[in-house]
Amino acid sequence: MSKLDQKPLRVLTVPAGAGTSVWVYDDVDTLKATGEDTAGRMSLTETIVPPRGGPPPHVHANESESLYILEGDLEILGDDGRMVGVGPGGFVHFPQGVLHRFHNPTDEPSKILIIFTPAGFEEFFLEIGQPVVAGRPGPAVDAEYIARADEIGSRYGQTIRTESGGRS
């Protein structure tokens, strides 16, 4: 039994605007609930996806990822390899081990909730993420950043894939 499984569960309340905010890729990710908060059961991140933003195609070996779209529109990589549009109020579930991605194709930011089950992948966000500082831009998302994300992500069971399905 892990330490997290032994931790007593408690009610968690997180006010609006609270949580640790980091730049990951070109998104702003605010951790609302972590594995430490939920005894490892799940994590919840509020994410702002900028215009034309979103992570590259990737696979999670250890957890499933679900999205709930609060504002804006996203394109989701579907099972058939085509991008499918999802708007506010839409929900998407990416099972563990399935290639997926989300992308904001518009000129306006999108706001989503990301749920990982079980928890753990939020540690990737904290390791690669740079703290959000008001008035300062996020990191450049270039080939070097993607290579670093792939290397760090591999420690958390994530593999970044190219559009053709090969490892980046």
Model description:
A seven-stranded antiparallel β-sheet has the order 8-5-10-3-2-1-11. It has a three-stranded antiparallel β-sheet with strand order 7-6-9, with no helix packed on it. The protein has a two-stranded antiparallel sheet with strand order 4-12. β1 and β2 form a beta hairpin. The chain has a single domain (21-160), classed as Jelly Rolls, CATH 2.60.120. The protein has 168 residues and is α+β, with helices and mostly antiparallel strands. Residues 164-168 have low confidence and may be disordered. The protein has helices spanning 3-6, 35-38, 122-128, 143-154, and strands at 20-24, 27-33, 43-49, 58-60, 64-71, 74-77, 83-86, 91-94, 102-103, 110-117, 130-131, 158-160. It comes from Actinomadura adrarensis. InterPro entries: Cupin_2 (IPR013096), QDO-like (IPR053146), RmlC-like_jellyroll (IPR014710), RmlC_Cupin_sf (IPR011051). This is Cupin domain-containing protein.
Note the topology.
Elements: H1 3-6, E1 20-24, E2 27-33, H2 35-38, E3 43-49, E4 58-60, E5 64-71, E6 74-77, E7 83-86, E8 91-94, E9 102-103, E10 110-117, H3 122-128, E11 130-131, H4 143-154, E12 158-160
Helical residues, percent: 10-25%
Q: Strand-and-helix sequence, N→C?
A: HEEHEEEEEEEEHEHE
- What percentage of the residues does DSSP assign to strands (E)? 25-35%
CATH superfamily: Jelly Rolls
Organism: Actinomadura adrarensis
InterPro entries: Cupin_2, QDO-like, RmlC-like_jellyroll, RmlC_Cupin_sf
Protein name: Cupin domain-containing protein
